[in-house]
Structures are given as structure tokens and as C-alpha cells.
Specification:
The complex is a heterodimer.
Chain A lengths: L4 E4 L2 H29 L29 H16 L4 H17 L4 H25 L7 E4 L8 E2 H25 L4 H10 L4 H30 L8 H31 L16 H22 L1
Parallel strand pairs in A: 1-2
Antiparallel strand pairs in A: 2-3
Helix pairs in contact in A: 2-5, 2-9, 3-5, 3-9, 4-5, 6-7
Chain B lengths: L9 H20 L6 H14 L3 E4 L2 E4 L3 H8 L3 H16 L7 H22 L4 H29 L5 H32 L12
Helix pairs in contact in B: 1-4, 1-5, 2-3, 2-4, 3-4, 3-5, 3-6, 4-5, 5-6, 6-7
The chains are: A mainly alpha, B mainly alpha.
């Protein structure tokens, strides 16, 4: 085994770094809270249960909007797997930059994409914090010893493994807007059925997607009612009882509602599929875009293997 | 907790996709058109449940509900959870597109098993339903956490620590989930017991 390097960090250096880190986290939280307060003006105290609509910006014109959805999905889905399989930091960073470029090219506000990245922050920061301290010792790597934690050195190799994961996860997450945000959901699902997804599944996705927003409205109403009656969530049996009944009620009400809606749909001639008037036509331009992305993917793989 | 993109080795993500597709296809064969509303309801509720945070001591946990999904849908639970996860990943990046297969296995398998178990032990009275609901709710989360740890362990030695922490982090979820599931099932048994009957879904 090649010998590894050791770096010992003094308490003052650590204190400075930690102080700076805590300071920036506090600043970030303050900024977030201020933004939330601005958004939540007049809604006092209700938890944020909003769900973004996936296709709110589907009517714009861009590289991705004008790409035939069938070809787009069939190209970008395998490309995501190429990004995930990258091993080196260099290639995954390039993939991240490509994804950033793609987000910029599809002309969707970056705030939506930032929200996606925030949703992964908890899971990914766990990797960044835990993996460097628990990964096995590799030959030739650098260990950093923090004061007071001599049994848990910080493995640089483990840190790079975790960093690579974070970069790849962000790279793929960024591609979700170009992939699903640039066509109406119905069109996306239609193109998925052309690619072989059974009709009944796309019906289920469409219905469920519709009901998510109905349910959110419903639980907001129910939860407000509970708060008005003095419900205070806590760590106790009463809370579990209330929440269990809450979910039970949600099921009962929404089942009755969907049953009624479904019967109404049947009355209007629903036979298991929605009529669709979408015509897909792949032009040489669409295939050109596909070739471009596949070459990009191969290039990334080539850089990765060097 | 959902697995993000890029964590698992590519071979594992593809294998998990294959397993998920088989599970979903098998589920789909049990579906009749008239079950569509019920599946849509449970899928959306599964989706919505992940937004609701309950306090647990100093932190808060969000519910996963694999146990209740299994109890309500029986063999179709796998499909419902897979679709719910798909919607979660395209709407707000819970999990990821390439990790969808792994997440489907992680949440769908426990739901299937819990559904089976629930119908074996639920008995006839409200009390036995409550207990069965609690057991299935807790067991579903426990199995999901175990599968999560197992999947993370396939990614290599680097992730053993994360796998252990993820397992430990699920202990509060496990307790809250068991309690909420027990009460939800007992509520459904009293108010609309036909929802718990999945024999109609089994041909």
C-alpha cells in the first residue's frame, strides 16, 4: 500500500472555517426566510404545500420546445444514464456544465430548477458530510485530522467520491426541466405511449397528476379546519390519531369524488383513452439534435475513460 | 427518503429498473378499467403524504405510507407507488429519473408484502384491523429502510456509513408511520370498510 499523506488542522484554523461556514448558512437561511415571508404574506402559518406545475412554461419557443417530444425523450433518457455512469470528477463537471447550458437554452426561469436542487439538498449533504469520514483508507490519499476527532480522519478520496455523486445528481436533475418541462404533460405522455408505454398507465399518470392538485386543495382546507379547532401537532398519540383520521378522511372523500368524476366521464363516452389530436412529425432537424446529444454523451464517456 | 441520481452503480440502477418494470407489468395485469379512480386516488395520496411533515421530538418526519397503499390496493400497490414516484421525481425531484427503478423497488416491494400480510392478519374486528394496520405501516417503512441500506451498500464500501445513518434516521419515521397507519386503518374500517377490500382487484 502506498503511504498516505496526513494533514493536521489546528483549532484556530478549524474555528475560522467553521465560523465562516455557519455564518454563510445563517445568511442563506435568513435570505430564504425573507423570501418565504414575502411569498406567504397573508397566509399566516399554513405550511407550504405548493406543488409546481410541470408544464407551466411549455408554450415557449426554444431548442428543446421545438424538438419532437418522442425523439427528445428517447435521446435524453439514455443520456441521463450516461451522465450517471461517469466516474471522474472532470467528466461529471463537464456534464453539469452541459446541463446548465441546457437549462439556459430551454428558457425556463432558473428559480424552478433551483427548487429542484434544493429538494435534493438534504440527501446529498448527508453524503458530503458522512462519506469522507467513513470511507475506507486508500493508498496514496490525503487524510485530514480535525482536532478532537483523531479517530475519524477526513478522507480526501471519500470526499471526492461524494462530490462526484453530488455533481452527477445535479447534472441529471437539471436535465429534468428540458426533458419534461418543455412540452405539455399530455403531449409528453402521448409521446411516451408512442414509445411503448401502455395507454392505461398514461391515463393513470394523467388522472393522478390532476388529482394531486385537487388533493392539495383538500388537505389545505381540512388542515385549516383542524387548526381552527385547536389542533397542535406534537410528538404524541393524539397527533397520530388526528393525522390517521386525517388521511382516512382524505381517502374516503377523494374516493367518493373520483368515483363520481369517473362515472361522469363514462357517461360522456370515456372508453379508457382520451381522444388525442396530437400529430408527431420528426424532421431531419430533430434527428440532428439527437445525433448532437449522442455525440456529446460519447465525448463525455471518452473523457471519462482517459 | 428517496435515492438520488448518481448514487448507485449503473448496473444496479438498470437491474432495479428491470425489476420495477416486471413488478409494474405484473401489477398492471390485475387492473381493470373500473379500478382506475381508486388507483389514481391512492397514487395521489401517496404523493401528497410526502409533503406532510409531522413533528418528532426536535425534528420532523414526513410520511411514506407504503403500508396503507399496500392495504388499499393489494397487488396493484406496486404500480401505484411506481407512478407516484415518477410524478414526485418529475414534479420536484424527490428521487431522480435514473434512480426511479431503485426507488420503485425500495418502496413498492414493501407495499406488496404489507398488503399481503394485512389481508392475512386483519381479522374481523376494529381492534384487529387497527393492530394489523399498525404492524403493516411500521413494517412497510422498516422494509423500505432496509432495502435503502442494502441498495446503498451495493454502491461500495464508501457508503456503509451512510447506509447505517439512513437506517437509523428511519427509526422515528417507523414509529410515527405505525401509529398513523393504525389510526387511518381503524378510521377506514369504521367509515368505509369496502375500501379495504381488495378482493375485487384480484381476479
Amino acid at each position: 500500500m502506498t503511504p498516505h499523506n496526513e494533514i493536521h488542522i489546528s483549532i484556530t484554523a478549524l474555528a475560522t472555517v467553521l465560523g465562516a461556514a455557519i455564518f454563510s448558512i445563517v445568511l442563506l437561511r435568513m435570505a430564504l426566510r425573507q423570501k418565504q415571508r414575502r411569498n406567504a404574506a397573508g397566509r399566516n402559518g399554513d405550511p407550504d404545500w405548493s406543488v409546481p406545475t410541470i408544464d407551466a412554461y411549455a408554450d415557449r419557443i426554444s431548442f428543446f420546445h421545438q424538438w419532437d417530444p418522442r425523439v427528445k425523450i428517447a435521446t435524453l433518457f439514455p443520456y441521463c444514464f450516461i451522465v450517471v455512469s461517469l466516474q471522474s470528477l472532470l467528466s461529471s463537471t463537464i456534464a453539469l456544465l452541459v446541463s446548465l447550458g441546457a437549462v439556459a437554452a430551454c428558457r425556463i426561469p432558473f428559480a424552478r430548477t433551483a427548487k429542484r436542487l434544493l429538494a435534493m439538498a438534504g440527501f446529498l449533504s448527508m453524503f458530503l458530510l458522512v462519506v469522507p469520514f467513513t470511507s475506507p483508507l486508500r493508498g496514496g490519499e490525503t487524510l485530514i485530522y480535525f482536532p478532537g476527532m483523531t479517530h475519524f480522519p477526513f478522507h480526501m478520496a471519500g470526499f471526492f467520491v461524494a462530490l462526484n455523486i453530488v455533481i452527477k445528481a445535479c447534472g441529471v436533475a437539471l436535465l429534468m426541466e428540458p426533458l419534461f418541462g418543455t412540452a405539455p404533460l399530455a403531449v409528453t405522455l402521448q409521446s411516451l405511449s408512442r414509445l411503448g408505454l401502455p395507454d392505461s398507465i398514461s391515463q393513470m399518470i394523467l388522472l393522478s397528476h390532476r388529482y394531486i392538485f385537487v388533493f392539495l386543495n383538500e388537505i389545505q382546507r381540512m388542515y385549516r379546519g383542524m387548526r381552527v379547532r385547536g389542533f397542535m401537532p406534537g410528538t404524541n398519540i393524539a397527533t397520530m390519531n388526528a393525522m390517521g383520521n386525517f388521511f382516512g378522511m382524505l381517502f374516503v372523500r377523494s374516493f367518493d369524488r373520483t368515483q363520481r368524476v369517473y362515472e361522469a366521464m363514462l357517461c360522456r363516452g370515456y372508453n379508457g383513452r382520451f381522444p388525442s389530436f396530437i400529430r408527431f412529425q420528426a424532421t431531419p432537424k430533430d434527428w440532428g439534435k439527437t445525433v448532437f446529444w449522442l455525440l456529446l454523451g460519447l465525448l463525455l464517456l471518452a473523457i471519462d475513460r482517459i | 427518503m428517496h435515492i438520488s441520481d448518481g448514487v448507485l452503480p449503473t448496473a444496479v440502477t438498470i437491474a432495479a429498473y428491470a425489476v420495477s418494470f416486471c413488478g409494474a407489468a405484473w401489477s398492471l395485469r390485475q387492473v381493470e378499467n373500473k379500478d382506475l379512480p381508486k388507483i389514481a386516488v391512492v397514487t395521489s395520496a401517496f404523493f401528497v403524504a410526502s409533503l406532510i411533515h409531522l413533528p418528532f421530538g426536535p425534528t420532523s418526519v414526513h410520511l411514506l405510507l407504503p403500508g396503507i397503499v399496500g392495504a388499499l390496493l393489494g397487488p396493484v400497490a406496486f404500480l401505484s407507488i411506481f407512478l407516484g414516484l415518477f410524478l414526485q421525481s418529475i414534479l420536484f425531484q424527490f428521487g431522480g429519473l435514473t434512480a426511479l427503478g431503485a426507488n420503485g423497488v425500495m418502496m413498492g416491494m414493501p407495499a406488496l408484502l404489507c398488503g399481503l400480510l394485512f389481508h392475512l392478519i386483519r381479522g374481523k374486528t376494529a381492534l384487529s384491523h387497527t393492530i394489523a394496520g399498525g404492524i403493516c405501516g411500521g413494517l412497510g417503512t422498516l422494509l423500505a429502510a432496509t432495502l435503502l441500506a442494502g441498495l446503498l451498500a451495493t454502491a461500495g464500501e464508501d457508503f456503509a456509513g451512510v447506509a447505517k445513518i439512513a437506517l437509523a434516521a428511519h427509526i422515528p419515521v417507523f414509529i410515527v408511520e405505525a401509529g398513523v397507519s393504525a389510526f387511518a386503518v381503524s378510521f377506514l374500517f369504521k367509515v368505509k370498510p369496502e375500501l379495504l377490500d381488495t378482493s375485487r382487484l384480484r381476479k
